[in-house]
Amino acid sequence: MLHTVLRRRANGESVEDIQPDLITPAGKHKGGNLSLASIYRALAEHAKREAYPEAIDQPHADFATGTLLAVARRSFGPAGCPRSRSNWSPPPGPGCTSQP
Predict the structure, then answer these.
(1) How far apart are CA 37 and CA 79, in angstroms?
(2) For residue 56, what are the CA distances in angstroms to 41, 68, 83?
(3) CA distance linking residue 4 with residue 94, whole number of Å
């Protein structure tokens, strides 16, 4: 959708002229036309990504790193021993006791 809008806008067409030709490819409203607001929102997001690529990439990297560390901290206790869950306890690893 965005590629089509950018290409046709470069050829001098207005968003209002492009909008009837765009259809929703998937989801609940599949086959319906996109609203002008959705098109302008996509254009604004694209312009923002073009202007500040580091503003998008850095938080994604930070989130991925932080999420993986948080999962690792919740899953393992001291010395890398798995923590027990309510009714399930994994087998202890080397150097771990059976009770966490």
Answers:
(1) 53
(2) 16, 19, 35
(3) 58
φ/ψ of 18, rounded to 5, equals: -80, -35
Which residue shows structure tokens 């965005």? Answer: 2
Token pair in block for residue 52: 């500040």
CA distance 98 to 90: 9
Task: Write the CA distances from 55 to 3, 24, 42, 45, 47, integer angstroms.
Answer: 22, 28, 17, 12, 12
Span 27-77, pLDDT tens digits: 888 888 888 998 999 999 999 888 887 766 666 666 666 665 666 555 555
Q: Looking up tokens 């309510």, which residue turns up? A: 86
pTM of the model: 0.52
Q: How many residues does this entry show for the chain?
A: 100
